[in-house]
Amino acid sequence: FAPSPTGYMHVGNLRTALYTYLIARHAGGKFILRIEDTDQGRYVEGAVDVIYSTMRACGLTHDEGPDVGGPVGPYVQTERRGLYKEYAELLIARGHAYRCFCDKDDAAEENVSDGAVIHKYDGRCSRLSEEEIAANLAAGKPYVIRQKIPREGKTTFHDEIFGDITVDNDTLDDQVLIKRDGLPTYNFANVVDDHLMGITHVVRGSEYLSSAPKYNLLYEAFGWEIPTYVHCSPVMRDAQHKMSKRHGDPSYEDLIREGYLTEAVLNYVALLGWSPKGEYAEREFYTLCELAEIFDISGISKSPAVFDINKLRWMNAEYMKKLSPEAFFSKAEPVLKSVITNPAIDLKAVAALVQPRCEILSDLPERVDFIDKLPVYSTDLYVHKKSKTTLENSLSSLQAVLPVLEGLETWTNEALYDALVALAAKLEVKNSIILWPLRVAVSGKASTPGGATELCALLGKEESIARVKTGIELLQK
């Protein structure tokens, strides 16, 4: 996995890291982390730490990398800068690269036909004589080193997902290998590093498919073995747009801050463009170990995957339900404490109430804020078609409920439920005629994490009775 430290860890980055990890673990190979920081103009302070912390949190442990070392380091490209010039000079000596003295203002580009305008460098510096090159160097003229692409013939490369792809060489640009500052471009550094580090499988986004022929020509120019290419189609926000921070799409850190569980995010991301086969084809839930056991490159799709936040919410809710009460409480406690300040409220009881109905932790404040303080609410909430309640019968129900609550000695969910069901039977009405108005009165909400008696048990006798009296006053107005 070779990320650039240019910002946050978006979902596409995480998927690439996950797939490379799974390929390595499935085959019993080594998972290597390399930081590709040669584009210093886009370097973001702290981005490397985000990469480390994300991978650590997700359990994607690398065998070699900048922080753990290894036999083929250094694992940060700027620390390897002395290597690349040497290999570029070797290409010049073999006739596969050349020094280009053109500056950016030179109109050194040509248009390729077929109706499409393709701007590409015309290779003029590749035709300089030895004397002209020597004169430019003697004058201290700055230069880049460009790859010398053959003007004739075709280049074919194989990708594990897209198969064999053939391009005409005359459509390829003489790409820059070494910039004026002596640093390599990504397109050169990744080839040199992948070879020197013994990389067998290169996993990256399909946007690099167009560069793969140039990589192949570099491997061939050096006489090196070409690795296995795995180009993954992008993760999309919708059918037309790739995910991006600029458009407010969430990073891994954003998702965790919103209250998604790492296990759910990883499970969901694994299935964004990959499908298990055989006996696992119908399953949707996997641990990281299970994914490593069954992961197969052939299951990766050519088609872009659309990131569906609602599907992730559903999956996260399923993971929430599977947590032990203790594990859920440890995650929910900081959120609950930020909303519920009344020390008399049993936060563990609140957690037990919300767990079966919790999709993401950031939903909790809105779901439980009524516990601390009864919100201002409209009496329209008392009118409920399914429960067959109206403003009139809701008032009657609360007036009948009040003395029952005041006279109840055992204040538990079971005792409350039995007493109110008995009241409904006595009044010869459905249970909902009694319970819906009570739920509205004690919560001030249309949707709550528990039923009327559960909420009363949680709030306590005094607070519940006070809220019922408030409900009666509102309805009497």
Measured as a percent range, the helix fraction is 40-55%
Question: What distance lies between the first and last C-alpha atoms, to the nearest angstrom?
Answer: 66 Å
Measured on Cα atoms, how large is the radius of gyration? Answer: 32 Å
Shape: elongated
String of helices and strands: HHHEEEHEEEEHEHEEHHHEHHHHHHHHH
Number of helices: 18
Strand order of the largest sheet: 1-4-7
Q: Describe it for me?
A:
The protein has 477 residues and is mainly alpha-helical. Helices cover 44% and strands 9% of the residues. It is built from 18 helices and 11 strands. A 3-stranded antiparallel β-sheet has the order 1-4-7. Helix 6 links the parallel strand 8 and strand 9. It is elongated and about 105 Å long.
Brief description of this entry?
The protein has helices at 11-27, 47-58, 81-94, 130-138, 186-196, 212-222, 252-257, 262-270, 288-294, 309-322, 325-339, 347-354, 364-372, 391-407, 413-427, 431-443, 452-459, 461-476; strands at 97-100, 109-111, 119-121, 144-147, 154-159, 163-168, 176-178, 201-205, 228-232, 235-236, 305-306.
